[in-house]
Specification:
This protein is mainly alpha-helical. It has two domains: 96 residues, no CATH class; 58 residues, no CATH class. It is 48% helix and 3% strand. A two-stranded antiparallel ribbon has the order 1-2. The longest helix is centred in the first third of the chain and has 17 residues.
């Protein structure tokens, strides 16, 4: 376990390197990083509404966690300064367990913490659900009948959707000519 280079008491979770020189990196605990006034750390903690007392509590939880699993700590000790994040910034993945929204299983599997959906996305979905029909879900549920005689049109829509640019098919026609049938056929192919 890499200890804080300033207080030598707590595990290092913030790593600093002078202008990309990772060999001269030094690790700091959250308490020392906060005391030194490292702006990104302070901004993050302030944005999350974490007080100094909570920082102390997180550090003690992190210390306990790292003491419980010494084998993982040795592996992280070897990898901590190798740069988990592009650009030379190093991180300790076990820090995710300290923040809400991550489970111990996710941390052990190396999975990122789950993000909770924002309210504004629900608002957008509310209108979509009110005025639209999810044809793919209907096709998966078997609620759409087989489409006969529209293979060429469906293939053309798939070809247009597969393009890198200009990939927005536009189905135009009088009512009853089969625009919805083509969309349903596409949904059946997707499902």
């Amino acid at each position: 376990m890499i200890m804080c280079s300033r207080c030598h008491k707590r595990p290092a979770v913030v790593f600093l390197s002078p202008t990309g020189n990772i060999k001269e990196s030094r690790g700091l605990c959250l308490v020392c990083a906060r005391e030194l006034g490292i702006k990104p750390v302070n901004d993050l903690l302030d944005k999350m509404g974490i007080t100094d007392d909570q920082v102390e509590e997180m550090e003690s939880e992190l210390s306990d966690l790292m003491r419980e699993n010494p084998e993982a700590n040795e592996e992280e000790n070897e990898n901590a300064l190798s740069g988990f994040v592009p650009g030379g910034a190093a991180t300790v993945p076990m820090l995710q367990n300290v923040f809400p929204g991550s489970s111990s299983e996710q941390v052990q599997n190396g999975e990122p913490a789950k993000r909770f959906p924002r309210e504004r996305h629900k608002t957008k979905r509310k209108h979509l659900n009110a005025y639209c029909t999810n044809l793919t879900a209907k096709a998966r549920a078997g609620e759409i009948d087989a489409i006969i005689g529209r293979e060429k049109e469906i293939a053309r829509v798939i070809q247009i959707l597969s393009r890198r640019t200009k990939n927005n098919p536009c189905l135009i026609g009088e009512p009853g000519v089969g625009k919805t049938a083509v969309a349903e056929g596409l949904a059946l192919r997707i499902a």
